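hey so i finally got around to running the thing on that chain from the lab meeting. sorry it took forever, my laptop kept dying and i had to restart like 3 times. anyway pasting the input first so we r on the same page abt which one it is
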Amino acid sequence: TSRNKYISVAAGSGTLSGTISYTGTHPSSSTVLVAVWNGTQADQQPLLVVNAAGSNPWTYSFSGLSNGTYAVLSILDVKGTDEPEPGFPISDPLQAVVSNGAGTANMALSDPVRNASISGTIYRSGAVAGPVIVALTIGKGAAITTFVTSGVAPWSYSFNNIYPWRFGYEIQAFKDKNSN
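ok and heres what got predicted. didnt touch it at all, straight out
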């Protein structure tokens, strides 16, 4: 089924379909989200997102596509929230071509490895009393992890041993007025 919150407008009569396999450590009873983008890059908001059907190996199908090149990607929704997170099994993005009204892209999910890091420096003029918190988040969600520093700016921070995340982390820094 399509997820209305992600749908742009698909204006063609073609289909893109395929299978998704997984041999990792998470339960294969989880839902698989499959997203398709116009063009060759899996970035920004996808054109369409569907749930794959069945169980491992899952099947999926997008309809209403025009002939052309698309990027397609799948993610195992381990928590069942319809919101992908770092650490969820993910496929490499594939380029798929819909030609003469049909296209196929078969994908394999794999468990990500915690081998990424993010570091930087925060600059601020003027003194700040008390701790400064640097939070690593995805989207508008809660902090995945935090780093606390104090003293005079500039402050350096580092988040190590995190999952690579193709959809981007956000760094937020703020003064902890309440010390909580």
